[in-house]
Amino acid sequence: MFELSQFYTHCRQSNIAVIPYCGAPRPGATMRFAGKTAIFLDFSKIRSTRLLRGVCCHELGHAATGALHKVSSPYETVERSEYRANRWTAEHFLTAEDFKEAFSAGCRSLWELAEYFDLPEEDIRRAYDYWTLRRNIPLT
Prior knowledge:
The protein is mainly α. Helix content is 55%, strand content 11%.
């Protein structure tokens, strides 16, 4: 399971700058410039700790995989980058074992899983779909 401390520790150890940036089009963005990686967080769009955890987890996936794209990239390239970041997140922070543990603890619905993992429902759904639909692993 993902903890914010893992995000900040990884960023510090990997020399990734974490920069608050108000007015961004999205709550988080990862960029590379001159060989440096930076994760920008727009706290005006991040209204809960749960959303902050989701944004940080996802952006860490972009930084770890190098799945970045230009703003003007074609839709296919954007989707490929997003998929790679989401896949990395599932493989590292929402593993099949994590889901099995949550189901054993009594979680049955999406909102219960979101509560259990303290991540947004859409992040839980993407990881669940990755394991069940893409990897064909039964979780329940």
